[in-house]
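Tutorial handout. Part one gives the primary structure; part two gives the three-dimensional structure as tokens.
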Amino acid sequence: MAGDLFPTRQPHGCRSCNATGETVSLGLLNDVYLQHVRIIQSTHAMRFYTEEGSMRPVVTSSLGWLLLSTRTPEQIERLVRRANIAIADPSQRVDVAAMVKRILSLKGQTQIHIEGMPFADGATMCALLPVTIHGQPVVLGLGGSLERVRENRVRYAEVLRGAVGAV
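Part two.
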């Protein structure tokens, strides 16, 4: 399935990467983590590298937030609490009530734009795909430097909508 969304026959993989040059990721929940199941690296000189297959606590990723928003409020709270336990450094843990509130505010949205995540100088845009992998919702994200994503926000949103519509 992931291979269908990121065809290897094309030099840059998918339309989102071709149209933006940003890092593009296909992600899903894996327990309390966001897992980047496919990555196409940015072609820009200033970029944030993410390893394909890598996982990060779901509360530290905008892609993870959008995926969590597909769950019930009870499931969201439980997953946020469990993700906090998985974060070894107590200073990196999130306020559970505030995180649940933030994720609940995303409910019903199919596309989001978050600045300063996962890096202070970065921004991410992501959209839920109308497919599942092993019964799990899937999110398509693109990210890059905060300045560049801000500058191209409207165009990038259109690119994401087009990519979602093509699935």
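Part three, for discussion. Strands lie at 23-30, 33-40, 55-57, 111-115, 122-133, 136-145. The first strand starts at residue 23 and ends at 30.
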